Task: structure prediction
Amino acid sequence: MGNAVFPVCPEATSVDLEKLQGVWFVVRTNLEMWKTKRSPQITYTNLSCSSSRTTFDDTVRYYDNADAESRNIISTISGVDTEQTCPSKCAHSVFQWRGNCLLKLITSDWHLAAASPSYDWAITVFEATPFTAAGLDVYSREPFLTEAQLNAIQKCIDESPYLTRRAIGIFDAIQVKPLPLL
Result:
């Protein structure tokens, strides 16, 4: 793969779901919720591939504010991601998130739009829910991006009219300290 990134869906041909698993820090985003929350991270676990659908757990964790951070009070949103049928070549890259418990009625479609070959950063695009607007997240395996990663991500966004439109209003998420492991 060299230094190339996966092309934007619907042209994406595949996503390495094993490499997608694990902890991701939300480092850039245009989701309004992340303007006031601190240290947002997403963990994908329990990958299950069956003949019908691929699923995995999706756990979002963050501090509500500086006080919650100082007292180590972590907020959590849990759900399950399920592979969706995609009419183009982007099989295994389009998912529907469905919340757990009280959030079970809430869904959001999302896809991995781009990732570095080593999966040290990724760009996801998500659709609106009744509580959030559609948007874009930039993930990293570390709480902060290197200059080289920032340049690669910006180049990826700039070269894609689709990502350029979806990245309007993007800002740095507040990453102050990693959350304790699950």
DSSP finds four helices and nine strands in the chain.
